[in-house]
Every structure is written in C-alpha cells, then in structure tokens.
Design brief:
With about 350 residues, the chain is an alpha/beta fold. The chain has helices at about 10-20, 25-35, 50-60, 135-145, 165-175, 195-205, 220-225, 235-250, 270-280, 305-310, 335-344; strands at about 5, 60, 65-75, 80-85, 90-100, 105, 110, 125-130, 155, 190-195, 210-215, 255-260, 285-290, 320. The structure holds iron/sulfur cluster (SF4).
Length: about 350
C-alpha cells in the first residue's frame, strides 16, 4: 500500500484530496459517502466514479481498516468485544453493545492510558500512543462490517482518556456525525473524561455538540486521589465547576459515571455526598457496578449493595440509571481482553 489512507479523512480533507489529483472537489464528497455511508473499502466498487478516476485514486491512496484479531460474544447480553491488531503490532479493544432500541459501539482513543485509575485494566498497560483518526473511525467501520447492524450510539469509553487525544477524537466524532456519512446524531455521541479540566473548558469554548460523560467514581478528594491520581492535578471542585459551566453554556446536562466498588465507594456517606454533588449540577447519573479484574482486590457490589446505595441517594429531579454489566463473561471493562491476550 502506498500513498494516503483515505479512512479517517473528513469531507473537506477528501475534497482537498480530490483537487490534489486534478478532480473536481465534489468528487471528495462522493468518496466520503462511499467510505462512511456505504462502508466500501474497494475503489473498484465505487460505481458512480469513472474508471479513469478510480485508477487515478489508486495511484495515490488506499483504504485500510484495522484488523480484528480476536472477539468474544457475551452469552449474557450478546455484546461483542473485539480485539484489533494495528499496523505497528499494538492492540486495542472495541465493544459492540446491542440493546432493544439501540446499538452502541464503545470506541478506544489511545493504546493504553497514562492516567493509572486503580480499578482499570487499561491502566496496567501504561500509555503506548494516541490512536489516529483512521484507527478510531476504522474500529467503527469494521464493527459495522462484522455485525451488519445499524449503529445508533457511540461512546468514547474504551481504552484511553479521550480528552488526552482531543483533536483526533473530535475529528472522528465530526466524521461520525456528518450527515453525508454515518449520520449519527450529536446527542447520541458521548465523549468520556476522568476530568481533564483544561479540555472540558476548551470543549465548552468551542461549543462542541457531543455529550460529555464525567467519570466521577469518588465523592471527595481524599478518596478520589486514591482511586484516580489525575484528581491530584484537577481536583473534584475544579472538575465540577468546569462541568457546571459546560452544562450552562451548552444547555445540556452533564453525564456522571460512577463505578460502584464494594466496600470502597458505596457507603451511606458516599451516597450522601453524591446526592449533594448531583443537586449542584444539571446532570444525569449512571451507576456502573464494578467488573472484577483478574489479580485485583476490588470487588463487584452485590445486587443488595447496589440497590441499597441507590436508595440512599437523595436527588428527586435527577435521572439515575444502572448500567448492568455488558457481559461479565466477556470481561467488558476496557483493557480486559487485551491484558488477557497478552498473558496467553
Ligand atoms: S479509566 Fe480511563 S482514564 Fe482511567 S486509566 Fe482507564 S482508560 Fe485511563
């Protein structure tokens, strides 16, 4: 393969590409639709382009998706976790989550992660590198090819901290949202963060249309410092202030994610402090029972503990949901299939 990989280019970049090979810029729009709307990876199948144009493209470009090297289907939920092997030999994970009224794909944004959250399997890898736009979009196109399903929702909650790869994640989200491509609504695209306050501020200033989900997981600095070392740089108050600003200026609720770990962040006092936090914000709360990692001492809460914790939360006007495991049998938390394969 020689030339440029067209997967991962935006519509305007494809227009520029068309012009660079002496074609009209609207030809770039046609290629854009073939790649993202029809998920076509062979120029020869792009039948509304002339033969001459197609052979002209082939001289300077190619279409390359990341390769699926392993996958596990959950017997409990039918979720599928895919392991992708990238061209430099690194691997990343992507999860397809089918539900009654929607199909969600959870995308990775980095190979590994630098942020060392104590409950996370990806943290064990350290940071290896950021993913390119092509590798981010490539995960989605490959999952669509493999599952043959229409995807309705995208969450950037796989391996890595999306805000640490801000430009590529935003560009990928823009491509996913583009009406001439995958055409997934902005409010159906969610970018998670453990609290990169500088990036939340930038995001708000740039008025980006996608949802932000804040991974809260502890209700005071003392506990959050232990679970998520990034809190020493951006403490809880600075995160909540940035989220408040985001939700007021962009007129949308912040999503709070709370990984519930038995005996760690599930006490009555935690529920009280959490109530106070959610009352102070326009937000929705998502409780995620912890998915155990091999060799880790953290435990998943029992159903009784989960219900007890939720019953203790006092927040009449806040929507609270529990994201039950997307298949404990496929190790659905990010980084777990990767670490399992590395041990083989
Ligand atoms: S939870 Fe997210 S931010 Fe924290 S270490 Fe894992 S991948 Fe990184």
């Amino acid at each position: 393969m020689s030339g440029i990989n067209l997967i991962g280019l935006t519509r305007s970049e494809l227009r520029n590409f068309a012009e660079s090979i002496d074609e009209k810029s609207y030809r770039g729009d046609q290629i854009f639709s073939w790649i993202y709307q029809y998920n076509e990876t062979k120029f020869s199948q792009m039948t509304n382009l002339s033969k001459e144009f197609r052979s002209n493209i082939e001289k300077s470009a190619f279409l390359d998706l990341p390769k699926i090297s392993d996958s596990i289907v959950s017997r409990e939920t039918s979720s599928i976790k895919f392991l992708f092997r990238l061209n430099d030999g690194f691997s990343i994970e992507t999860v397809f989550i089918p539900e009654k009224k929607r199909n969600t794909v959870c995308l990775s944004s980095q190979v590994g992660c630098a942020l060392d959250c104590q409950f996370c399997a990806t943290a064990k890898m350290g940071i290896l590198r950021n993913l390119t736009v092509s590798e981010i979009i490539g995960q989605l196109l490959s999952v669509i090819k493999e599952t043959k399903q229409k995807i309705t929702n995208i969450v950037f909650m796989g391996m890595g901290e999306p805000m640490m790869n801000y430009n590529n994640v935003i560009k990928a989200a823009d491509i996913i949202h583009d009406q001439r491509g995958l055409n997934i609504g902005a409010r159906k695209i969610t970018i998670s963060t453990v609290g990169m306050v500088n990036k939340i501020k930038q995001y708000t200033k740039e008025k980006r249309p996608y949802n932000i989900a804040f991974s809260l997981n502890a209700t005071n600095d003392l506990e959050r410092n232990k679970l998520m070392p990034i809190n020493k740089k951006y403490n809880l108050k600075s995160c909540l202030d940035a989220l408040k600003d985001y939700s007021i200026k962009l007129k949308r609720p912040a999503m709070l994610e709370y990984v519930l770990i038995s005996g760690v962040n599930d006490t009555y006092e935690d529920a009280m402090r959490l109530s106070k936090i959610i009352k102070s914000l326009n937000c929705k709360l998502n409780i995620i029972p912890y998915n155990p990692i091999e060799g880790e001492s953290f435990k998943r809460p029992t159903e009784y503990e989960i219900n007890n914790f939720i019953n203790n939360i006092r927040a009449e006007n806040t929507i609270i949901t529990v994201r039950w495991s997307q298949g404990k049998d496929v190790n659905a938390a990010c980084g777990q299939l990767y670490t399992k394969n590395e041990k083989k």
